[in-house]
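Tutorial, part two.
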Amino acid sequence: MSRRYAAFRSPRGVPAFAIKTGGPARPPFSPVVLYGPPIRGGRGDFEFSFDAVSGSGRAVVSPRAQSFDSFLRTLCSALLNKGGGALLHACGLAVAGKAHVFIGRSGAGKSTLARLAARSARGTGSGQCRPVPAAAAGVEVISDEIVPLRRERGRFYVYGSPFWGEMRSAGRPLRLPLGGIYVLRKGRQNSLSPAPASGFIPLFLRCCLNFSKEPAAAAALLKTAGAAAGLYKGGFCFTKKDSSFLRLLK
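Running the prediction step on this input gives:
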């Protein structure tokens, strides 16, 4: 795990988050989060407690990579949701210094879009789909599955993370202003179609990772969705032939 998340480890001297291995006492199930304070959460193979003020906490996690990754996703989603952001099930691309986020139902093409963008950035048509330095063709894949979105002083920023899907990248730390959010779908040609925000908000909420049933959590995410609607650019249709869709983002 130390190697897996090496790029995202905090510098020495920050408050400690103590992690111990243990369990599971019972099979995994959907995580449950309580906002507290402190923030507490868990499922069959992990449990944690986190003090957002001091930045310290504790966790007991089953010694499996999947369990540890699920623990981190659950904790990060709670922190982002509580702070005016969200951990989105989405594809994120960095183009010309800005982040573009694509949401959609399962099968909409998030992984396909990420692979096409990665090939463009590498300058090859091979299947080597990995994130590349932002300087290469001005394009980088932020993630093909999970995108952290955070609101800071009234403005949204997208962060890099170790949470990936089929491309199985380790990711890298980055922070970029959000240039736009799009509803993704496949088609016969590339196009960007403006659409009312009324359909965007329900889909955005559906793509947010949220494991709390508390009313405060729902209210916070609804507020975030309303603010994010201001950066909704419409429906984004792309073909699976090549990465020419990137021209719509520049």
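The radius of gyration is 18 Å. In part three we will examine how such features are distributed along the chain.
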